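Checklist before submission:
- one chain only
- standard amino acids only
- sequence pasted in full

Submission:
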Amino acid sequence: MADSERNRKILLGLVKQPGNDRCADCGAPGPDWASCKLGVFVCLQCSGTHRSLSTRVKSLLLDFFEDDVVESMKSKGNAKAKAVYEKAVPPFYYRPQENDNKVLKEQWIRAKYERQEFTGERKYPPPGYTTGFYEGMLWKKGKEKTLFLQRKFVLSEREFNLMYYNKEDSKGPKAVISIKNLNATFQPEKIGHPHGLQITYHDDDHTRNLYVYHESEIVTWYNAIRAVRFAYLKTASKVVLLLQLALKITRNYLKEGYMEKTGPLQKEMFKKRWFILDSQSRALLYFKGPLDAEELGVVFIGTESIGYSVKEYVPKTARGNKWKCGVMVQTPGRQFIFMCEQESEQKEWLEALREVLSRPMAPQDYIGSHFNKK
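Returned file contents:
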């Protein structure tokens, strides 16, 4: 008969070992669940997906472990499972982290263990994100309306572009989007759908957004976009390590949220605007609302050595502003004044802006440093 307390002590010792001390799937520290058949230690959220795969999942702290299960866990562990199930993960494929949204984690787990896409064995048909061409219908938000309508999207590695059509049988695309400056990031809360994806790109000196979702294929779309972006970066870059390129494929924005903004004279009415801080492009973009298709303006965030600074600020006039926690961004050509509703938000914006400010500028950043506008 199994000794419950002895087995629990063994498992609690195993989960502290390097490799086992973080969730096998999202890297969250201190996993306290075990996927018994696979022999891996996972966090609470990832354990739910393992359970949906008909895999027996147990709590290290609450459940009883038989002797044979403990021996299996001792012989396996996270590192050995990773060597098998993550043997051939493409460099462009996004590996979810602890704070990523649920659908990314769920599809990563299913791709690893259920579909076994990364074991190195040839799959037929191949996963859609590996073919260099992907097409299908996505629900897309209208430019002026909040209504989502189905639109046909076509992604091409050969052309390095993403096209969408207003109708499935349209003769020509509504838009042809270059993959060069395209970014894709999951925005379930903002879009109001758990599979919501924001696609951002540059067009005619403006930053534009598309808001889309798909009930079952959005992660495949996301990784297909990343695959084409990765192929483009390889052709456009000099000899660079693949891991360095992988960091530039797509990114989450450093911070988003509402602030109030006044004009260049600092006497104009304060207006509530939605801000996005893109650390990779060093751009603070602002929109009328969180789901706007086009930005109203951009503030480039340089470094202190070329005349940029960020600090707390209380405006001399308060015409129209309801919020009292100020942030001042000084650029070589202008002072920008923003107001936050709460001190906690002011602190978060200051920390995020200073993080960008402290990072050395890359050569390509100087090209964009002129685009402070409006």
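Reviewer check: Residues 172 and 313 are 51 Å apart (CA to CA).
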